[in-house]
Amino acid sequence: MTDDSTPLPATGCRDAPVLKQRGQHEVFCGLTGIIWLHRKMQDAFFLVVGSRTCAHLLQSAAGVMIFAEPRFGTAILEETDLAGLADAQAELEREVARLLERRKDIRQLFLVGSCPSEVIKLDLARAAEKLSLQYAPHVRVLNYSGSGIETTFTEGEDACLASMVPVLPETDERQLLVVGALPDVVEDQMLDLLSKMSIDNVKVLPARRADSTLAVGPNTSFILTQPFLGGTLAALGKRGARHIPAPFPFGEEGTTAWLRAVAMEFGVDITLFDTVTHAPRARAKKAISQASEKLDGKSVFFFPDSQLEIPLARFLTRECGMTAIEVGAPYIHKGVVGPDLDLLEEGPTLSEGQDVEMQLDRCRAAQPDLTVCGLGLANPLEAEGLATKWAIELVFTPVHFYEQAGDLAGLFSRPLNRRAKLRLEAAE
């Protein structure tokens, strides 16, 4: 396949200066990732080792009673555990035994730390290793940290997937590994496009079930679907797998560039690629055009939240006609988002990390047409007259690939439509 890649702007943002911020930040902790991961991995269970505060967080965020245990729960640490007065290891083993006796469907059990080990007085890595030996081969026990001290919002998924990579079987088979949790319907659309391009040996991490044929080795090429998976990228690299850099599949342009990168890696004929992508590309362009009428010519300001900010800024500026004022992200990993930075026209301030008061000052001074931020900042900014978009909604809503491109644009246009209607009503 020849390189018919998307033309780059005259000056992209890969080498643009980055404003480094290390002050107070406003973002959920990595425990939140459990809410979508437990739905994706159908025979996994997430046991959070933490306090009642952590239980309340998950209960509130998921909208369900934590003790109903859909596929997650909390092993609550009492004061005696935190003070080191009780044998936390023995207590955890009893909780796990009761859980696995009651839930015979569990094949993967994740011990998720809500605090660093020095706080909870328990080495979860050693606990997971011991329990995995005890319950093998029926149940694999792994651990990762979802602590708000060590992780932010979407890093919970990264930590979870990275914990799975070292225990994957070895394979020499030539294959494509697609990395990142997607809604099943979106994953099926993606697999169908790859199959039509004759790329058939495709595996997905995380797999829907633990008994899949998922393996990794030197003939594995992998591509990310989420821009917050830097730790998983590093873990796969250590296993000898090859990373396929690409813009992320948001919108028509991003999806086409993502698929083209895979097609080039696997030698897909350009005529076949164009045949497979022609119709869905046309549908995506039409849907984006209809949904983004209110976005053209408007400005957008991103607070750091999900790490989706850079690919989304690329989508909004290149496909929806918006102007980015500031694009803030918790971390900027150029090995991950470099291709999107290449496509993002130079101009916006790139900021990494957060000093929330200073960033609020910049946002108020800029008076953007749309501000993308976390829940904690949205209502105060709305009260000040700024239209906002909840960043968290972009993680929970299907937004990847062609068929969701119009919905993605609509997520940004709806706040502006709502603001216009409110102004009209007020004028009447």
Automatic annotation (TrEMBL):
Gene3D superfamilies: Nitrogenase molybdenum iron protein domain. Its EC number is 1.3.7.7. Residues 29-386 form the Nitrogenase/oxidoreductase component domain. InterPro entries: LIPOR_BchN/ChlN (IPR050293), Nase/OxRdtase_comp1 (IPR000510), Protochl_reductN (IPR005970). It holds the Pfam family Oxidored_nitro. Protochlorophyllide reductase is composed of three subunits; BchL, BchN and BchB. Forms a heterotetramer of two BchB and two BchN subunits. This is Light-independent protochlorophyllide reductase subunit N. It comes from Roseovarius atlanticus. The gene is bchN.
